[in-house]
Amino acid sequence: MEEAGAAVVTAGEAELNWSRLSVSTETLESELEARGEERRGAREALLRLLLPHNRLVSLPRALGSGFPHLQLLDVSGNALTALGPELLALRGLRTLLAKNNRLGGPSALPKGLAQSPLCRSLQVLNLSGNCFQEVPASLLELRALQTLSLGGNQLQSIPAEIENLQSLECLYLGGNFIKEIPPELGNLPSLNYLVLCDNKIQSIPPQLSQLHSLRSLSLHNNLLTYLPREILNLIHLEELSLRGNPLVVRFVRDLTYDPPTLLELAARTIKIRNISYTPYDLPGNLLRYLGSASNCPNPKCGVYFDCCVRQIKFVDFCGKYRLPLMHYLCSPECSSPCSSASHSSTSQSESDSEDEASVAARRMQKVLLG
Fold first, then answer.
1. Strand intervals (E) in the chain
2. What are phi and psi of 277, to 5 degrees?
């Protein structure tokens, strides 16, 4: 045991690597206490503690007293059902790896996590391969977090509070049961890598186009039939993975179209005829509604509000792949100027825009569809 778990000491720093020793919590407890006593009288601080693939069912109590300078803790591949209060004593912890355990219950994370020093120090958190059915609320308060991995859990949704993690650069949520993406996910200014593969996602909110730092977007093996045209605004995107999605080949012919409301008809008339008005001329709800106007792709048509026709148009990326983008028309009779026909949504979807193709080719360096 002593030889296999010997510390590696370099330049005033130390690492304890006790990986795959298959020791129990009790055995490890005594070893860590001994190591902690040794370190108290030594100059070097223990910065990395690696305990993966043992038989741990709880965190060793010695963590709470013997390792105040620890920066990395790896307890992956054990049988942990909870990360106890010992974790809160690691005031300078930057990286916590606890993947492939049995975490997921209401007490999986220690109480007071959001109020602890970890809220300011923890930068990398990997909880993939556990049993979480929802993202713990306390994780959404870790404002210094740069990488969050919750892949291979049982997540049903992404909370809107994900936008609290303003320092987040990498978010891995692949291999869950997520059906929808909240628009608040688009409010993460530093996000570079977003992995949502192997879920049950049917559509992408246009707000994701606000992720101006995004370089890699993994959406493969979902239920996507189209992407919003706003995806072209991701000017730094280098990698887009879409394989394993239905991706529209033939869009639904019989699109339902509800008649416009009186509110929409009034607002359209004002916008299309360019009727001048003051705030005193119109009801308050109509004034607010007028501010939500969207332009129809056909410049001869004008605007629409809540009532529109969804249609698919394929756009070339890199001159090789055709990506289905959603676009909206103001009525069933309307046709986009770049469409070859207006009577069939299928024929519209098969037309390409050379301008959009050139924009896409410039902005997309790598598209993974196969």
1. 7-10, 13-17, 45-50, 72-74, 95-97, 124-126, 147-149, 170-172, 193-195, 216-218, 227-228, 239-241, 294-295, 303-304, 309-317, 321-329, 367-368
2. -160, 160
127 touches 149 (CB < 8 A) = yes
- SS3 for 116? coil
At 44, list the tokens.
Answer: 């070097």
CA angle 355, 190, 134 (to 5 degrees): 105
- Nearest Cα neighbor of 93 from 65, 66, 54, 119 is 119
Burial degree of 319 (CB within 10 A; 0-12, 13-18, 19+): exposed
- What SS3 class is residue 272? helix
pLDDT tens for each residue of the chain, 370 residues long = 333 333 333 334 577 887 777 666 666 766 676 665 455 544 467 899 999 998 899 998 888 776 888 999 999 999 999 999 999 999 999 999 999 999 999 899 999 998 999 999 999 999 999 999 999 999 999 999 999 999 999 999 999 999 999 999 999 999 999 999 999 999 999 999 999 999 999 999 999 999 999 999 999 999 998 888 888 888 888 888 888 888 754 444 444 567 788 898 898 888 888 899 888 888 988 988 888 888 887 777 778 888 887 777 777 665 555 677 777 777 777 766 544 332 333 333 333 344 444 444 444 444 544 4
Measured between alpha carbons, how far is 108 from 85 in angstroms, rounded to an integer? 11
Return the number of other C-beta atoms located less than 10 Å from residue 252's C-beta: 12
b/e string for 284-315 if b means 16 or more Cβ within 10 A? Answer: eeeeebbeeeeebbbeebbbbbebbbebbbbb
Ordered DSSP codes for 212-242: TT--EEE--SS--S-EEGGGGG-TT--EEE-
Cα-trace Rg, the chain: 27
Q: What is the 3-state secondary structure (H, E, C) of 142-162?
A: CCCCCEEECCCCCCCCCCHHH
